[in-house]
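We were asked to recover a plausible sequence for a given structure. The inputs and outputs are reproduced exactly as logged, with field labels preserved.

PROBLEM: sequence recovery
POSITIONS: 669
GIVEN STRUCTURE:
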């Protein structure tokens, strides 16, 4: 029994010791856990400090890039360092803690950032698009844009990807949607290698942790007239040839792309299957349609009893009723040249032709000139009259609708700021008193004896940069004299109808030198319709740029012209650099862009040529040339630059040409 009792005591002692040991172990574990929990905030704090240091280092790199006093090669290397560092930083969860405005401010406003949240089948997805534009003094004006996509569903799962590495596209908006093919992102913005400011759209698909660019089928896409769609790799570029600016904005399941400040445009959207589609031109405001409309002009002729009057008529205007009203005005205005001589027994002979002085979406200015001869009269008379139309209102526009016909305006005309179209008539306006001019200009734009209200045989017209006035003078002096004053020389307090004047504002100071010629000889010059476009140039306004192949020397070459609405030659471009080679093998591309950033649109051309015929012939190769626009509206080439572009191989695409030239310092004015 004692033995058993002693054994029982030993067991109790062993159990007690075990409990003490186990308790000590438990306490030891609690102590270790407490130490670990204490260390976590320190690790997070250290991580935040590391992120903050890297952020500040990136800002420092950016400031080196922006320092114009540092060597350009050093700055270029720093751009690579900055973009790579920014990419890494955007993959950090801490980066999404900063709001868009905070990040922009932190990087000295060198970034543009847009963040959106989308509710998808898999849950909420946050997407941020970041643009960085490098200094053009380092990269040139084209390859200066870097775009990043950052996305996260939770702040612990943050991803980022660079999708534009020194290219011409500037992303401004995006849409993310579910589709049958997974998560899709439609990215839109502006591309800077063409003119006028076209819009680009790309489609991206999310697979795992990477966005991949997807092809967009454009073969079934239908565009309204005047819109043009170009495909470049997997993106497509939209532009409207008749408008100098475009806008892109978020619209339902895609983008609304509109021209100028018009309320009309086209939409690019996701379909239910996740594909991209283009909807026809439509009005943003469904109740009214006041958008700008394109139109063309054709020639009509009145010919009867020795009287011939040619005049324009409008076609392809979307509003049929407005077109009918405008054409009626044009016809009646043109035929007012008949006035008292419509009777065949009067023995009158009249020949009148017209010229378009200004043609735009809002305004049309037509000038009529001709000769009127009455039987047994001592001499023929030179006729001159005009018609100005407000296209939007479908109404005539007179000088008094645009100008306050008061003494300050008369003093401006007599101050010497006007230019006589015929230099020998310069001093004739001084023969008129102020009262005479006030009366004549107040009654301007009504032909005397035409059966309308009081007329004065004084007329006005508009060009792309000037206001023209024609006043009657003695037959010995020419029957009429024309004077022009720059629009920018007319003070605001002398103007009426400020809305119309907003369109009349000239772009640049231009001289009056215009190269006029006859109609293009299509037997001598074969037109390349695919590379001929309706466009606009500063000082010229709306014109046709025509590419041709002609035989002016011993071998054929490429020749380029600007034509007016009646196909008269306004300007013949200088010799194309590619004509120095004997073979012509077609045009590859034509683009309009202000390459040297002087405010004037230039022309870039790439053509294929070969080395001749016979044993010496080689495969066709590209030759690029740039026509730089001068302030006097002419164009010039720079042979040394042309040679460098082609010798160094920067002639494969329009993008190649612009990328190279944008890094040069070119001044032709």
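RECOVERED SEQUENCE:
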């Amino acid at each position: 029994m004692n033995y058993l009792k002693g054994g029982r005591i030993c067991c109790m002692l062993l159990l007690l010791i075990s409990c003490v040991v186990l308790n000590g172990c438990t306490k030891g574990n609690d102590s270790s856990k407490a130490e670990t929990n204490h260390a976590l905030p320190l690790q997070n704090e250290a991580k935040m400090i590391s992120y903050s240091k890297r952020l500040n280092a990136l800002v420092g790199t950016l400031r080196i890039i922006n320092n114009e006093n540092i060597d350009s090669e050093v700055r270029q290397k720093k751009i690579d360092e900055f973009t790579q560092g920014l990419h890494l930083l955007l993959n950090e969860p801490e980066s999404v803690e900063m709001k868009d405005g905070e990040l922009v401010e932190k990087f000295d406003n060198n970034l543009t950032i847009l963040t959106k949240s989308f509710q998808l089948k898999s849950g909420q997805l946050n997407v941020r698009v970041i643009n960085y534009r490098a200094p053009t003094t380092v990269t040139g004006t084209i390859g200066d844009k870097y775009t990043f996509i950052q996305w996260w569903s939770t702040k612990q799962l943050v991803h980022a990807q660079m999708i534009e590495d020194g290219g011409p596209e500037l992303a401004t908006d995006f849409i993310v949607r579910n589709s049958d093919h997974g998560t899709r992102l439609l990215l839109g913005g502006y591309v800077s290698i063409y003119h006028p400011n076209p819009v680009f759209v790309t489609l991206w698909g999310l697979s795992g942790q990477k966005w991949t660019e997807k092809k967009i089928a454009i073969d079934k896409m239908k565009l309204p007239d005047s819109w043009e769609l170009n495909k470049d790799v997997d993106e497509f570029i939209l532009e409207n040839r008749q408008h100098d600016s475009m806008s892109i904005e978020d619209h339902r399941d895609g983008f609304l792309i509109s021209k100028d400040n018009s309320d009309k445009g086209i939409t690019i959207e996701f379909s239910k299957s996740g594909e991209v589609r283009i909807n026809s031109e439509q009005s943003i405001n469904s109740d009214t349609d006041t958008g700008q409309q394109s139109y063309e002009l054709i020639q009509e002729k009145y010919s009867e009893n020795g009287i011939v009057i040619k005049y324009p008529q409008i076609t392809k205007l979307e509003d049929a009723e407005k077109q009918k009203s405008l054409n009626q005005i044009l016809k009646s205005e043109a035929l007012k040249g008949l006035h008292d001589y419509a009777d065949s027994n009067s023995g009158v002979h009249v020949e009148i032709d017209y010229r378009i002085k200004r043609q735009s979406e809002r305004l049309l200015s037509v000038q009529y000139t001709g000769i009127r001869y009455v039987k047994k009269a001592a001499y023929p008379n030179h006729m001159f009259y005009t018609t100005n139309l407000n296209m939007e209102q479908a109404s005539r526009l007179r000088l008094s609708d645009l100008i306050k016909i008061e003494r300050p305006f008369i003093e401006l005309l007599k101050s010497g700021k006007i230019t006589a179209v015929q230099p020998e008539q310069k001093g004739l306006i001084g023969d008129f008193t102020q009262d005479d001019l006030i009366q004549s200009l107040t009654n301007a734009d009504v032909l005397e004896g035409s059966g309308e209200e009081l007329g004065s045989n004084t007329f006005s017209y508009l060009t792309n940069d000037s206001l023209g006035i024609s006043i009657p003078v003695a037959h010995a002096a020419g029957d009429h004299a024309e004077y022009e004053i720059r629009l920018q020389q007319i003070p605001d307090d002398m103007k009426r109808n400020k809305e119309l004047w907003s369109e009349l504002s000239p772009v640049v100071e231009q001289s009056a030198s215009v190269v006029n010629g006859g109609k293009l000889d299509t037997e001598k010059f074969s037109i390349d319709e695919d590379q001929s476009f309706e466009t606009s140039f500063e000082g010229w306004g709306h014109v046709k740029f025509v590419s041709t192949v002609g035989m002016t020397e011993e071998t054929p070459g490429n020749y380029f012209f600007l034509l007016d609405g009646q196909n008269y030659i306004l300007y013949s471009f200088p010799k194309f650099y590619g004509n120095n080679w004997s073979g012509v093998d077609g045009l590859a591309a034509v683009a309009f862009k202000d390459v040297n950033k002087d405010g004037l649109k230039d022309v870039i051309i790439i053509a294929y040529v070969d080395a001749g015929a016979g044993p010496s012939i080689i495969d066709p190769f590209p030759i690029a040339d740039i026509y730089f626009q001068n302030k006097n509206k002419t164009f010039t080439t720079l042979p040394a630059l042309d040679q460098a572009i082609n010798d160094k191989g920067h002639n494969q695409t329009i993008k190649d040409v612009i990328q190279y030239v944008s890094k040069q310092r070119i001044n032709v004015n």
